[in-house]
Amino acid sequence: MSMRNIIIGASLVASIAFSVMPSTTIAAEGGAEPLPNHKWGYEGIFGSFDSTQLKRGAQIYFEVCAGCHSIEMVYYRNLVDIGFSEDEAKAIASEYEVQDGPNDEGEMFSRPARLSDRFVKPFANENAARSANGGAFPPDLSVITKARHGGANYVYGLMTGYMEEAPEGFELSEGTYYNKYFAGHQIFMAQPLFDEAVEYTDGTEATLDQHAKDVAAFLAWTSNPELEERKRLGVKVILYLIILTSMFYVLKRRIWNRICLDEYTHGPYVEEFETEINKNKRPN
To answer: For 103-112, how does the pLDDT look when each residue is reduced to its tens digit (9 = 90+)?
Structure first.
């Protein structure tokens, strides 16, 4: 391959890569303001979750969010993966009750949750959830950062986008609150986080901004608990492909060098060379 072709190929790859890169400003939906573009530590090929931040985010979820929102796809045992000890995870699970059974008498019974149980839902069913929230249904947060445009930035923006009063001329419907990052700006959920809404056990300053970052990171983890494992596997695959490609390139060079050598030493070029020599040997 010529140097010109290599340069053209590299330029094409670079142009495609830049064309699919996200903009520095993440657009929001429904006329809302552009979402804040926060840089998350788990982004990028070598990015990873901060277990300390995930534990703070879990604390916020259990103390603030779990009263209305469920995370049905996560088990209590998964808390061990983000830095909680097994005893701490058991203690968290034991604070909730699940219905089990039937027992020997054929009756259902309640028991404390175990590590093998999924996060307990705050409401028995959707109707109960709507009845407790003025008709609004709090969505499950298991994959919220995948389901909403902007991912973790959406959660962070939603937590920090509340305003005490709507702008002049904007009329809020009854039971709604103004949020500049929410589509339509009207949201049934009251502002859940404030400065010092949660007292962190690790001593981190409990500001609204910190709360929003921590719970957004935690919900990004619940949406992608296997993210770090997939990245590690991806790096291994890339290294393997680089080595394999290098081996094939060396093998190709050796095979074609031998073919070309055989062609020059056993092909028609030898006959032409001998004919030319014989011509030169003939007397003038």
So the answer is: 888 888 899 9
Residue whose entry in the numeric block shows the structure tokens 């604390």: 59
- DSSP-derived 3-state class of residue 72: coil
Measured CA to CA, the distance from residue 18 to residue 69 in angstroms comes to: 38
Residue 149 lies in a domain: yes
- Whole-model pTM: value is 0.77
Residue 77 in this model has a pLDDT that exceeds 90: yes
Length of the chain: 284
Q: Is residue 199 domain-shared with residue 247, that is, in the same domain?
A: no
- C-alpha angle with apex 73: 132 to 195, nearest 5 degrees? 60
* Residue 55: domain span: 27-74+118-225
Which of the 8 DSSP states describes residue 62?
I
Tell me the C-alpha to C-alpha distance, in Å, between residue 2 and each of 6, 7, 8, 10, 259. Answer: 6, 9, 10, 13, 20
- Give the CB-side neighbour count of residue 198, counting CA atoms within 13 A: 24
Q: Residue 97: in which H helix or E strand, if any? A: strand 97-100
β pairing state of 177-178 and 109-112: unpaired
Task: Quote the CA–CA distance of 200 and 208 in Å, as a whole number.
Answer: 12
Q: What is the CATH number of the domain that holds 156?
A: 1.10.760.10
Locus of tokens 């909730």: 96
Q: Is the pLDDT of residue 26 over 70?
A: no
